[in-house]
Amino acid sequence: MAERATQLATDPAGLWSLSGWTIDIGPAWDNRADALASYHKALPPEANTDVVPESLLHMHHNRAVGINRDSERTCRRLARQAALTWRARRSSGAR
Hints:
Shape: globular
Number of helices: 4
Distance between the termini: 20 Å
Number of strands: 0
Strand content: under 5%
């Protein structure tokens, strides 16, 4: 599961193969990077940017799945692994 999450985070083309993925989701998914960049710019300089993503993930999970600590823990672990892989590939110039 971790490998698949990392693959989807680093190669978004694979998202189209997911069950339930529809053409309606594509534009929203594509806009997420712009939305996050705008959100980041709107944060005050003193904002703890280590805490903000955690809060966003927590509330998004609650809205999408409901309150489920085990599921949320798994999602956070997968998101962290995918983000670290993405960052490592980006800093090395790989995709």
